[in-house]
Write the structure tokens for this entry.
Amino acid sequence: MTKDDCIFCKIGDREIPAEFLYRDDFVFAIRDIKPEAPVHILIIPFAHIVDLSSEPTERLHALGSLFSASTTLAKQLNVTESGYRLVVNQGPDSGQWVPHLHMHLLAGRPLSAIG
Amino acid sequence: MTKDDCIFCKIGDREIPAEFLYRDDFVFAIRDIKPEAPVHILIIPFAHIVDLSSEPTERLHALGSLFSASTTLAKQLNVTESGYRLVVNQGPDSGQWVPHLHMHLLAGRPLSAIG
């Protein structure tokens, strides 16, 4: 899938409408359309990053902004105290659906096993 | 739990022995002692970070190094192609056990639901 076919790129570019729960210069956040928990948000870099392993180290370091976005969202959604899980799936065994890097934020009930 | 009682701080300080599968100036990686998948690694900052939400933004941005460590480990463990999952649990609902920030790297079989 190229950038031109990528649904997350289209949402980031506002070609496909979706409510942004958060945005900064680097990432945006939307609700997962198939939520697996009462709170299920996707935090997505605007850049079309397909595979962590093929990114240069400095771009990986820039992904720390996923964590700052997640803490802002956790506060906004009032789940900081109750707790939340951050998940990045990469490749076939992980269950990754969209080949554009994204971090899941799950919360709102006691979560089960991590894998 | 203070830093003095923290098992991950003791492992990072080499007070408790454990095999480091990876280390750089910021993080180290060890095998999970209760693995939930054939590959189950913990990537742990040396700094005693308890709660993402109470960290200043610049420290959160520095956590991008968790991703660079994870890609190095994925290559080392030969799971880049088969895929892997990265998980950070925060607070009661997440199932977090040790209150010192850590990222799980899971791989080696098709993983189940994320939460």
User: Anything to note?
Assistant: The longest strand of chain B covers residues 39-45.
